[in-house]
Specification:
Layout lengths: L1 H8 L3 E5 L3 E5 L4 E5 L12 E4 L8 H32 L8 E10 L8 E7 L7 E7 L2 E8 L1
Parallel strand pairs: 4-5
Antiparallel strand pairs: 1-2, 2-3, 3-4, 5-6, 6-7, 7-8
Length: 148
């Protein structure tokens, strides 16, 4: 069990991608660790997971990662509005307040998928069993869903 956890959390290979930061290959995923954003940015520097074949992310996937911080700044209000609508439609508008926008992760999907990117949010600590995903394509919100 310990060996399995170590393999999942230890990079096989680390390289530097110009203009991005570290690209890490794990046994089950690729991650990019972006350089820290400016203090005024709402986008937090967290690893971005990339679905990719063994040979690595495509240029289009890396370009999505490059564009993510500034584009996120532009569309964050739309994401928040779509999440608010999601809770309204589910009949629980008060649950919007449980979304922890500070605990966000990003996941770049395989080329050819309808959705290019998922932004995932956790809930505040009291509701930590829930999470919410916002699916993007061409920097537009395509879908919102929740799960535990």
């Amino acid at each position: 069990m310990d060996e399995s956890i170590r393999r999942t959390n230890t990079p096989i290979q680390i390289s530097i991608v110009s203009g991005l930061g570290e690209l890490r290959q794990f046994a089950d995923r690729w991650e990019v660790q972006l350089a820290p954003p400016p203090p005024s940015s709402h986008f937090q520097s967290r690893p971005i997971t990339i679905d990719s074949p063994w040979d690595g992310p495509t240029e289009k996937q890396l370009e999505l990662v490059r564009q993510l911080p500034p584009k996120y700044e532009e569309i964050e209000w739309q994401i928040r509005e779509k999440l608010r609508q999601y809770f309204d439609e589910m009949g629980s508008p008060e649950e919007y307040d449980t979304v922890d926008f500070g605990r966000m992760t990003a996941h770049v999907l395989l080329p050819g998928d309808e959705t290019e990117l998922e932004i995932q949010y956790s809930s505040i600590e009291e509701h930590s069993d829930m999470g919410y995903s916002v699916c993007l394509s061409d920097w537009k919100v395509m879908d919102v869903y929740g799960g535990d």
